[in-house]
Design goal:
17 strands; TIM Barrel; 15 helices; three-stranded antiparallel sheet; 42% helix; homodimer
């Protein structure tokens, strides 16, 4: 291990919240941060320029999807994922483990790796931990993730124990296969809903040694309390001088609560997917834009928001686009929701810097309840 | 009639091509011009800012669609179509006649007006010529069109004669109903595929007196030769100091040939619809982006093009987006196709100014044949 790519700037005096930065070969990311999801070499419905205007510092790519289509070897010919998709800021790629589990009913996990079928044409595929690293190295992402195993939720202790142990052995193999040290590699802590297994997994990952640590297997149907408990059962066993990434989470409230408990990085399809379904996030709660109450509503989606959509369009116009199934609806809704998430994280960073995150959190919930 | 809103700058010495401008209350439009189609208060898949970056001077709105959804009275509450959709340059609205004819198998045309059913909910609707003007005045477009009647193609002489005569009577009623003189009103010449009926219709429209004149009922299945014949049978009978608008046309070749014969304005869904179907226009012909020959193609869509899409993305990436059905595909393809059309018209304007349009036309076909 070389020195940590994460630098801690300051910590909250009243919570686990941290303000720091992560150095990558495509630039430095200010944390805590939310990463928009760009599954198929595009953040759905927006351009890289739109993302920059919203303040996106780093995006996520899905290794499973890119491996299947267009294939990492094709992307390699274009000089990597950044060049292929015209994005010159950092990219984090997941390992494919979660997609193999969630898209594939018939995925088979053995000691060696994961056998599964393409969701596109049903062809048989196999991914070993070493393959997951090779694919990500070829994609050229800034932050790579170890291949992990996922389990249904809830899962019994034995299933969880076995799966977590296998994730630990795979993590060692990923670490050994990691040859391009310009790309960072994060380990993933599993352990299901068992506090002691979370601790054990965290300690194992730290012993193996990674550039950062992720918390996986959450936001899979458990209660908010359980999720918070599992974060709290993990973070204390991770080194303070490394970034902590909570995978696949979550709602705006989840982000606030994650930061409160020491999380530095988040990703989730929620802002982009909800945008396409017509559900918009605002500082006072969700707006379901198809509702007839917005038919003649001249207000922007969120009067507190400064995004392109809120600066230029009324709720009535956005409702018209959505009920008319216009493509511009997906574009404008996505811009708003991502801007909302990214602006929220920026406010959180400022609050942690000023050591006023407790006050910020209280105001955040106060606005939600004002609706 | 006040003085003409059209100013002729210069004419081609070798063809009917003209270089001029049309004054409207939202600004002056340099002609010849192509107008992107914004059917439902949006040019599909792009923002007004995208349109401006591409050089769009004026767009088209469809009265029929807006009348049905969201309704012109709702748009009126938002200060008109410009404010509603965040577009501050000129808008031309059609009258709804063509949509009533083409979307409605059961439309019934009487002397009084058109009875039809909503394509959304089947409700019975009625539009008289006076209503078409009122709706367009409420929408606040810069250029309004008379309600005309359309006929199947081919149509016999009697059918064509009756329909054209009714269009003439409706045009007089539209003219009488036109109370807001800040909005321009264009008459529509019909006459099917009969040269003498075209001339008769043109003379009638000129006698009624409009701010500009359109040629309707073309690009409905007739041959290119027939289309050219009908344009040539019409333009000589229209006043040289008024704009000529060829409705719903066409391919890039149609634009060149239309300008050659004296047309100043065009609109067509072809660039936007083809973009969404993955057919891209280039200076050397069409590119069907899903074709496997583009799988690893690092070139831009058109090496001669300076649009945002061609500056930043390869054919291979655009193919990936299209086969993956990503929304960004529609956005980037639409930007390219509209830019291609608008840049073509800009080149045409320059060529007419320099009186080199014959040479331009020859080069244009030369490039197409080079593929």
């Amino acid at each position: 291990m070389s020195e940590s790519p994460y630098t801690l700037h300051c910590s909250s005096s009243e919570s686990g919240a941290r303000r720091g930065e992560l150095q990558t070969r495509h630039g430095t990311v200010q944390t805590p941060i939310f990463m928009p999801v760009g599954t198929q070499a595009t953040v759905k419905a927006v351009t890289p320029e739109n993302l920059k205007e919203m303040g996106a510092q780093i995006i996520l790519g899905n290794t499973y999807h890119l491996y299947i289509r267009p294939g990492h070897r094709l992307i390699e010919k274009f000089g990597g994922l950044h060049n292929f998709m015209h994005w010159d800021r950092p990219i984090l790629t997941d390992s494919g483990g979660f997609q193999i589990f969630s898209l594939q009913e018939l995925a088979k996990i053995t000691e060696e790796g994961a056998s599964f079928r393409s969701h596109l044409d049903g062809s048989k595929l196999f991914l070993a931990p070493e393959d997951a690293i090779e694919v990500q190295q070829v994609l050229g992402s800034d932050v790579m993730m170890c291949l992990d195993t996922c389990i249904p939720s809830p899962a019994d202790r034995k299933t969880t124990e076995d799966s977590t142990a296998l994730t630990g052995r795979w993590a060692k193999r990923c670490r050994a296969a990691h040859s391009n040290r310009e790309q960072l590699l994060f380990g993933i802590v599993q352990g299901g809903m068992y506090e002691d297994l979370r601790r054990k997994s965290a300690e194992e990952m730290v012993a193996t040694g990674f550039d950062g640590y992720a918390i996986g297997g959450l936001s899979v149907g458990e209660s908010k309390e359980q999720m918070h408990d599992m974060i709290e059962a993990t973070v204390p066993y991770l080194p303070k001088d490394h970034a902590v990434y909570l995978m696949g989470v979550g709602t705006p409230e989840d982000l606030v609560e994650g930061v409160w408990r020491g999380v530095d990085m988040f990703d989730c399809v929620m802002p982009t997917r909800n945008a396409r379904n017509g559900t918009l996030f605002t500082s006072t709660g969700k707006v379901v834009i198809k509702n007839s109450r917005y038919r003649e509503d001249e207000k922007p989606v969120d009067e507190r928001c400064s995004c392109y959509t809120c600066r230029n369009y009324s709720r009535a116009y956005l409702r018209h686009l959505f009920v008319s199934r216009e493509i511009l609806s997906y574009h404008l809704n996505t811009i708003h929701n991502l801007h909302f998430y990214l602006a929220l994280m920026e406010e959180i960073r400022t609050a942690v810097e000023n050591d006023s995150f407790g006050r910020f959190r209280k105001d955040f919930y106060g606005r939600l309840e004002s609706e």
